[in-house]
Amino acid sequence: MLNKVCLLITLLPTVLLLSMGWYAYDQSKRVVTLVAEEAPGYLVLPTLNEMNAYVSGNHPELLKLFEAWVARHKKVYASPSERSARLGNFAASLDRVQKHNARTDVTYRLGLTAFADMTDEEFSGHFNLKAVQKSMQQECSATTTTTTKVANPPRPKWTAKLKDLTPPKSIDWRDYNIITPVKNQGHCGSCYAFSTTGALEAHYKKNRGKWVSLSEQQILDCAQAFDNHGCNGGLPSHVFEYIRYNGGIDAERAYPYTATETGSCQFRKRGVAASVIDSVNITQFDEKELEVAVGLIGPVSVAFQVVSDFRLYTSGVYSSPNCKKDPGSVNHAVLAVAMGTTEDGIPFWGIKNSWGEQWGEGGYFKLKRGTNECGVSDCASFPVV
């Protein structure tokens, strides 16, 4: 019965996650487990053909699921009309989740993430993906060799030939206790700033034994002269150059994040927590070289193209025929911190995102490795500290 709400008594078999720790969908029984603190229960959901009845927002099971999701993600709506519109978007997302997770030819799962009440267009606007894509179409400093460009002030020459090295079959730098917690960029196209700080924080811990949390806000406010554009995007490779020339980057506590451009640079040398000696750009399109860098040197800042269903990713190895592999299409910068192969034999990158810990696999995701999936090897770099 579609209107039946049952108390959860036993665990359901063959559970597919819809959202970390809150919903689980039993495809054979069309049941969603609600792991709510106040009233654990499970809801019987409609078939795909019956989904249209939910779009009106009047079905009690949909309403209950929506209310639990709203509470989970602390959503606040300005008016009843906005709430109704968000409920319609939520129903459409649920439909997409069910259709995708019913497929047997995919290697990842979708779910009701914090972005489930948005349309694809709203999600793109939330992170300024079009502006970020435009900003990444500039020279991304990914070179045709492993030698970085000559510049002043003088820098040590990078002589390692990454192609000549052999990477391990797998590595996860989280196991080495050098990765700082996942952050949340909020309503701003500042992914490149979080990719930069994540990489620099990790390499500082790895090479200097020092935990630091660095200022993304400084990058938004102060790095424009290096072809970065505040909340409208930029490139980690350019930010590494900025930090090197600037003489360092402040600690996050000294220059806290606001998810907006303040209009003036508030950098203070007394707040500096890290500096960059040099930066290395992975040869463009060379995913083997990227494997060596991640496997032997440490986390690497990478860029790739986010397409519509990625906002609902919850687990598995992501790949999509809809994303492109050319440098002109990448629109999101992240941090590659791991690589490996699943039990099913699928090679993957383990990547740290900047959308908070509730998204994906605790703020991380896996991306198919070895095919330049979504352009992941188009523009990659790491700092030398």
How would you describe the overall organization of this protein?
- Helices cover 25% and strands 18% of the residues.
- It has 385 residues and is α+β, with helices and mostly antiparallel strands.
- It folds into two domains: 5-117, no CATH class; 127-384, Alpha-Beta Complex (Cathepsin B, Chain A), CATH 3.90.70.10.
- The strands form four sheets. Strands 6, 7, 11, 12, 13, 14 and 15 form a seven-stranded mixed β-sheet that branches. The protein has a five-stranded antiparallel β-sheet with strand order 1-5-4-3-2, covered by helices on one side. Strands 8-9 form a two-stranded antiparallel sheet.
- Strand 3 (23-26) and strand 4 (31-34) form a beta hairpin.
- The longest helix has 22 residues, at 80-101.
- The N and C termini lie far apart (61 Å).
- Residues 1-44 and 142-157 have low confidence and may be disordered.
Observed structural traits:
5-stranded antiparallel beta sheet, 2 domains, disordered N terminus, alpha+beta, 7-stranded mixed beta sheet, 385 residues, Cathepsin B, Chain A, globular
Q: What is the strand tally?
A: 16
Mean model confidence by pLDDT? 83
CATH domain topology of the largest domain? Cathepsin B, Chain A
CATH architecture group name of the largest domain: Alpha-Beta Complex
**Tell me, what's the shape?**
globular
Number of distinct helices: 8
Structural class: alpha+beta
Q: Approximately what portion of the residues adopt beta-strand conformation?
A: 15-25%
